[in-house]
Amino acid sequence: MSEPPAQVDIVTSLTGAFPALEALPTAIVYPALMLVGAVIATLFVSLFGLFAIWLERKVMAHIQCRLGPMEVGRHGWLQTLADGLKLLAKEDLIPKDADKALFILAPIISFTGAFMLYVVIPFGRDVIAADLNVGLLYLAAVGSVEVVGIIMSGWSSNSKWSLFGSMRAAAQVVSYELPLGLSLLPVILLAGSLSTRDICEAQAGWFWNWFLFANPFMPILVVIYVISSIAEVKRAPFDLPEAESELVSGFHTEYSGMRFSIFFLAEYAALFGVSAIASLAFLGGYHTGIPAIDGIGGFLGGLVGVATMIVKSLCFVFLQMWLRFTLPRIRLDQMFHVCYKVLLPFAFVALVGVAVWQSVLPDRSLWFLPR
Amino acid sequence: MGYFSEIFQVGKSILVGMGITLRYLRKPSTIVTIQYPREREQLPPRHRGLHFLETEKCIMCFICAKACPVDCIWIEGSRDGAVEGSHVGDKAWITKFTIDYGLCIYCNLCCEPCPKDCIHMGQEFDFAGYTRLSMEKNLLTGKPYTEEDEAQVVRSRSAIVTLEAETKAKKAAEAAAKKAAAAAAPKPAAPPAAKPAAPSGEKKPEKPA
């Protein structure tokens, strides 16, 4: 814990950057700046979606001895844009017996849930939409909003497959909330704060200050976090809710065109969201791990922080893609077995271990170096 | 298996699997797909693709058409001289040589009996069209058969008829002149061969069968 952190959000950092804004009345400036932040985040999510879908197809193709998209742009880098435009141009279909209001609302809620993760993700010391003092709790809470949209989509589609998919999604996401939350609890023990920015600040300095190296239990917790975050975003090998081969495509069977692409975007927004949480909780967030580089202030320093955060998150994104194309989909009973009989006990043991370690050997990094 | 050894085994096998997929990801040489319309696979030399014709060797003997089990080869032309729109073969002027790939079974039976070895199975294999006519390939140009080609063939038909009639008359006149010469100087002479009958004459009795 360094200096007592001032409450930082996009409004304070932007008014800091443009002092002229302070002259305007707060009632106008505050909502306007929040809107700016939301637009930036939306742009980022969309661009990341474009990039991640392309990357995923390329990784998949190369693992499967193929080339993947090659036609649109150099090595097909514009393929996602072409597909997105195609989806936008499609007819807006709503099944006859669907519950129209819920059917329309479902993708929006699903995307909102994924999008709200970005509020507390710090992309730099001052690049954060809102530094909530309950940041990690907030992340755990809004992370499960997405599943509400998925249950709504399954119910309102009035299709067996959609309902099966959304029931599975609900069971899976609710179950995996437990190991996910438990794997983040020790981070709170180590940082002494729930604020995401404080968690990052607690890992400042050399890279052995990252929580990953704080004690021998943290690597286990990273593994638990990665596994349960894959289940949380419903990707292979935990893609039971979509289950291409058994449920057609699960909860979004009846969705097409624009609404389907919103679901798709929500999946990738959540993918980056959980990866960003992993990197801020275990890998020091926006810290490069070298004090000299982290010391750079001003605009350049902010840029370095943003780049570091994105690169670290992309490593986790790549890990999730890599796992997706390595492992086959597991069965429902195996999924619950892994959650309740393996991840949960291990997470509890690690939590107790971290607590004991903190009281016996506090302020040690890499298990022996003084911090 | 015990609880911990099972978890250990699962973790180990996941790591092994990830190692394998990473190896494939990093090796571009393992890629087996080709970018189809631009890159083509090297087909074996005896591949039976779309036919091609060495027009200048063709004597228009109709043996290929006769051999064809599904009658998909269409040949028209003249052996008496060039007409409008004809392609020059070996003492043959061909106006039409098409294969209807809506019928063709790629059996290679047309290429085997060819006395001049001028029709071959090629390497091309992608032939698709929107109409029935476009399923026919004009072997004289190597392109799909078109309405214009058909119109040209129809136009040259009458020219062939007049040309053949002229040639026949000329030959008859020559024969008469020769006969007159032979009568003037009696000598045993073989009667001039009649215009060689097209093998289609032989083909006809087979067709109804």
Strand order in space, largest sheet of chain A: 1-2
Query: What is the H-and-E element order of chain B?
Result: HEHEEEEEEHH
Helix content of chain A: 55-70%
> How many distinct domains of chain A?
1
CATH fold label of the domain at 51-154 in chain B: Alpha-Beta Plaits
Structural class of chain A: mainly alpha
Q: Write down the overall mean pLDDT of chain A.
A: 83
What form of chain B results from the Cα inertia axes? rod-shaped
- Proportion of residues in extended strands of chain A: under 5%
Order of helices and strands of chain A: HHHHHHHHHHHHHEE
Low-confidence stretches of chain A: 1-5
Indicate the percent of residues in helices of chain B.
25-40%
* Structure classification of chain B: alpha+beta
Backbone CA Rg of chain B: 30 Å
Radius of gyration of chain A: 21 Å
The biggest beta sheet of chain B, please?
Answer: 5 strands, antiparallel
Oligomer: heterodimer
Biggest interface, residues from each chain: A-B, 14 and 15 residues
Question: Quick one: overall form of chain A?
Answer: globular
Number of helical regions of chain A: 13
Mean pLDDT of chain B: 82
Report on the architecture of this protein.
The complex is a heterodimer of chains A (371) and B (209). Chain A contains 13 helices and 2 strands. Chain A has 371 residues and is mainly α. Chain A has a two-stranded antiparallel ribbon with strand order 1-2. In chain A, helix 4 packs antiparallel against helix 6. The radius of gyration of chain A is 21 Å and the shape is globular. The model of chain A is unreliable at 1-5 (pLDDT under 50). Chain B is an alpha+beta fold and 209 residues long. Chain B has a domain at 51-154: Alpha-Beta Plaits (2-Layer Sandwich), CATH 3.30.70.3270. In chain B, strands 2, 3, 4, 6 and 7 form a 5-stranded antiparallel sheet that branches. Chain B has a two-stranded antiparallel sheet with strand order 1-5. The radius of gyration of chain B is 30 Å and the shape is rod-shaped. The N and C termini of chain B lie far apart (74 Å). Chains A and B meet through helix 2 of A and helix 1 of B.
